[in-house]
Each structure stands twice: as C-alpha cells, then as structure tokens.
Design goal:
By secondary structure, this protein is α/β, with parallel strands linked by helices. The protein has a single domain (about 1-235), classed as 3-Layer(aba) Sandwich (Rossmann fold), CATH 3.40.50. The protein has seven helices and eleven strands. The radius of gyration is 16 Å and the shape is globular. The termini are close together. About 30% of the residues lie in helices and about 25% in strands. The strands form two sheets. The protein has a nine-stranded mixed β-sheet with strand order 2-1-3-4-11-10-9-6-7, sandwiched between helices. Helix 3 (about 75-85) packs across helix 4 (about 95-105).
Length: about 240
C-alpha cells in the first residue's frame, strides 16, 4: 500500500538536522507496522505540485508552522487534494495542521485559539469508537504543539475525542474514509521537548515548565501509530 505524505512544513533547522523532517518521523512510526507500506513525499509547501489521487493508495498530511487560514496558494491546493482524495474514496489521515486543513477543506472552521499554546503531553478523552481503533482505549496521552484549533467540525463529522483545552481533537469525517488528530504521535518525546525549548519565548513560562515536565510521562504514541496503520490497511484496495 503506497502512502503519499503531503509535507506541509518542516521542523526548525537545528531539529531538522538532528531528527529529520516530518515525513521521516511518520515513516519511522508506520513502516515497522506493516510490510505492505511504501512511502513517498510531496513537499507542497515548497511549491511541489500536489499529486493526484491516482498516484497513491492513501494520503497522510503533516503538521506545519503555517495556519490553514493564511491564504497561501499551496494551502488551497492541499485542501483541493483532500477533497479529491475523499471523492476518490481513498483513505487519508491528517495530523495537527493536517487535522485543521482537512476540517477546513470539508466545511469546518479553524481559528487561533484564545486558550493560547498547547504544549507538552496532553490527555484526550475518547467518546467514540471505530473499527480501526484497535486495541481500544478510553483515553490517550500524546505530544501536542499548537495554537490553532478546529472550533467547528464539518457537517456530518464525528468527534471521537478531545480535551477541555482542545474539544475537537480527533475527528472522523463524513467525506471519506478520512480521520485526523490534533496531537502528534510522530513526535518522540526528546524531539517534542527540544521543540518546546526552541519555542519557549512565545509561550508563558509556567506552561513551558509544565510542558517539559509532562515529557517525563508515558504517552500513547505507539497506540495511535497502530490506529493510523489500521485505518490505512482497513481501507486498502
């Protein structure tokens, strides 16, 4: 099953050199989970053309420092691709910016939250289930790094999980098969902590300290990686 990773941004240069780009993180997470997976990347944020749905079996949309409401042409093209992928009936998964882009592409609303930055490991309560959510869980903990949020899910969407800070954190779409996550299962804790230190100046000091401390706790990133793999495999043609 060939997964095209739509690269919508990259880590700050020092972290990119040490940990690799976001597509590499997703490959490290997903490749060990099935010998059926192969991967390629389209760096749409750098001006590369968006692929057509005939070029892949599944689409994965990464995180980005950009906002989905910025109005850049590559963002418009990425939204168009999300809709074309849904129309083709091929599975797609979005994470962080990808979560917000899919929600906006399908008719939802995304804004910069007045709650400020979400950083560190956050806990999400799950209020729904789906066949790909195996093994099942009632809650998940995972790294987050975002200021924007989906404030209004698209028509027909099912919110499967969230938190007081981010109520619309896990979404399954009526257009699909399509799911998205606000948290970052691809982030190893050492990367998440390093990213937070680099962004400390734009985040309240107490939130930085709490966020860094939270990286000492466990997360469910491996479980979420398994869910994403299940989702792709369950909808493979």
């Amino acid at each position: 099953m060939h997964i095209r990773i739509l690269e919508t941004g990259e880590p700050p240069a020092p972290l990119n050199r040490e940990y690799g780009a976001y597509p590499a993180m997703f490959e490290r997470m997903l490749a060990p989970l099935s010998s059926r997976f192969s991967f390629s990347t389209s760096a749409i944020f750098k001006g590369e053309a968006a692929p057509g749905p005939s070029e892949f079996d599944g689409l994965l949309i990464t995180g980005s420092p950009s906002g989905v409401y910025d109005g850049d042409s590559w963002i418009t093209n990425a939204e168009k691709l999300a809709r074309l992928t849904a129309k083709a009936g091929k599975p797609q998964v979005g994470v962080c910016f990808g979560h917000q882009l899919m929600a906006q592409a399908f008719g939802g609303e995304v804004t910069k939250s007045d709650r400020g930055w979400g950083v560190g490991v956050h806990k999400y309560e799950l209020n729904g289930s789906a066949p790909w959510m195996t093994p099942p869980a009632r809650r998940i903990a995972c790294a987050v790094s975002h200021q924007d949020q989906v404030v209004t899910p698209p028509p027909g969407a099912r919110v499967l999980g969230g938190s007081d800070f981010c109520p619309n954190g896990v979404i399954e779409y009526a257009q699909g098969p399509a799911i998205s996550f606000q948290p970052h299962p691809e982030f190893a804790h050492d990367f998440g902590a390093a990213l937070l230190r680099l962004r400390a100046e734009r985040t309240p000091k107490d939130r930085v300290e709490t966020g860094l401390s939270s990286y000492k706790n466990r997360s469910d990133r491996e479980l979420m990686g398994r869910w994403i793999a299940n989702f792709f495999l369950n909808h493979a043609r």
